[in-house]
Amino acid sequence: MTIPEVPPVLYLVLSGILFTIGVIGALTRRNALVVFMCIELMLNAVNLTFITFSRFLQSLDGVLFAFFVMAVAAAEAAVGLAIFVLVYRSRGTINVDEVNLLKW
Amino acid sequence: MAENIGILFQWLVFLGMAFTSIVASLFLITRKNPIHSALLLVLNFLCVAVIYLLLQSQFIAVIQVIVYAGAIVMLVVFVIMLLDLEEELRSGLRLLYSKVFGVGLAGLFLVAIVYSVAASSLTGKRGPYTPDKLQANVKAVGEVLFTDYLFPFEIVSILIVAAIVGAVVLSKKKSR
Question: What is the ipTM for the molecules in this complex?
Fold first, then answer.
């Protein structure tokens, strides 16, 4: 008797669960840094989907896309965290509910 | 028999890592202290890196550990320490209805994802990269990156330079 390999569906479901947890965190948390971390979590879940399809369709395009997603995430982290520091300097908080200067 | 043991090991690693990453991300979104969230984010990234190894992309696994778990989370921890975030603790349970609504919508979203994944099968033209060929993963990735994806690669380098300059300009003190 042979055990089947781990099917791609399980990887995709894991990726969906991680993405949903990231969405919930980004919707419910008020601290901008934690929202940022949840966005990183979602990007990571999407990368997992890319890698899974890349492995099971035997193509390298998904790996390259994950690479580019990581590069964009690094750029986003640098600029986004600098913006958080600036917002904190000018308003004394990074609570996303209290940063409402653009709200009409 | 030997390959059976290998596949059993794969299952064990997959289930363990999936469980750990889900638990870590659940704690991530519920902890009050952002430092705890950042460290749980590292744990989650490491678990996903092990899953990348199971999927035979060693290159992405290493990049994940270096770039995500190393650089990005280091930046986040640095900013957390730079800012004084006490006021976050009292933000408590305001806007309860909107939170419940958001969680419900996200749950529906998860149901949609699971349904669409389970209802369809992997179809499509198979590429030439069989698992045997992926043993030399970095070589294969580099070949594709510097031939088919050369232009996007250059664009990404420009993007990263722009991000570096932007971060420096943003965080510079105004001197007068």
Answer: 0.91
